[in-house]
Amino acid sequence: MNPLPLLTAAIFDVDGVLLASPHERAWREALQGLTEPERFTTALYQAAVAGKPRLSGARAALEALGVPDAEKRAPAYAETKQKRLVALIHAGHVAAFPDALRFVQAIRALGWPMAVASSSKNANQMMQTVAVGAGRTLFDMFGANDCGRTLTHGKPAPEIFLLAATALGVEPTCCFVAEDSPAGIKAARAGGMRALGVARLGDAAGLRAAGADIVVTSLDEVAIDALKQGRLKRCAP
């Protein structure tokens, strides 16, 4: 068996990996008038919606909840969710995970190229609210940005991550992707990349089942010394 190529670049999803965003809350609150919002659980969000383009996520949520005429109602639901999300962002309901900021800084110190690649068309706006010092925001930390692009095929297809690797000028097999959704993990693996599952919501089993190479609950658990050698590993216990 041929050894895996050494890792030299990193690609990050935004919502759930870098930022605690109000996406899930917006999806839930936008259900008012369609079904009981409390039926939209975190488990349903992770399994059916997270990582998908907005309209696909809306349709998947309504279908999972058994809402009649899900496909017909999905566009209006997606639009209501978007308006609610923008209001929540403007109200300050976005925060960076401290471990994510430390991890990004550690990767930057290695001299690796980094990209962000998110299906969310709001990802850039949210990253611009997070200061990282010296007049810079989280948005400025990445050499390539593939957030909110119109894709031919959304996750779990690998298109978004392959575009990010191309923008970085790195072979996909030399990239790892940090993702928090099963759809994102599947997309990374389909693109020939290593997949780092970030299980902040008690969903490690789903990320492993999707094919994550390693799963952590905090990015502090990733071994930086191993990354220096081009390998993706957890810190020793």
What does this structure look like?
The chain has 237 residues and is α/β, with parallel strands linked by helices. The protein starts with 8 loop residues before the first strand and ends in a 9-residue tail after the last helix. The mean pLDDT is 94. Helix content is 41%, strand content 13%. The strands form three sheets. The protein has a six-stranded parallel β-sheet with strand order 7-4-1-8-9-10, covered by helices on one side. A two-stranded antiparallel sheet has the order 2-3.
Keywords:
single chain, 237 residues, alpha/beta, Rossmann fold, DNA polymerase, domain 1, 2 domains, six-stranded parallel sheet, two-stranded antiparallel ribbon, globular
Question: What's the SSE blueprint?
Answer:
Blueprint: E1 9-12, E2 19-20, H1 23-29, H2 42-49, H3 54-64, H4 70-90, E3 95-96, H5 98-110, E4 114-116, H6 123-127, E5 131-133, E6 136-137, E7 144-145, H7 159-168, E8 175-179, H8 182-190, E9 194-198, H9 204-210, E10 214-216, H10 224-228
Parallel strand pairs: 1-4, 1-8, 4-7, 8-9, 9-10
Antiparallel strand pairs: 2-3, 5-6
Helix pairs in contact: 1-4, 2-3, 3-4, 8-9
Name the assembly state: single chain
CATH architecture of the largest domain: 3-Layer(aba) Sandwich
Q: What is the spatial order of strands in the main beta sheet?
A: 7-4-1-8-9-10
Strand content: 5-15%
Query: For this structure, what is the CATH homologous superfamily of the largest domain?
Result: HAD superfamily/HAD-like
Q: Which of globular, elongated, flat, extended, rod-shaped describes the shape?
A: globular
* Alpha-carbon Rg, integer: 17 Å
Main pleated-sheet profile: 6 strands, parallel
The CATH topology of the largest domain turns out to be Rossmann fold
Which stretches of 5+ consecutive residues score pLDDT under 50? none
Distance between the termini: 28 Å
Helix and strand content put the structural class at: alpha/beta
Helix fraction by DSSP (H/I, runs of at least 4): 40-55%
- Structural domain count: 2
Discrete helix count:
10
SSE ordering: EEHHHHEHEHEEEHEHEHEH
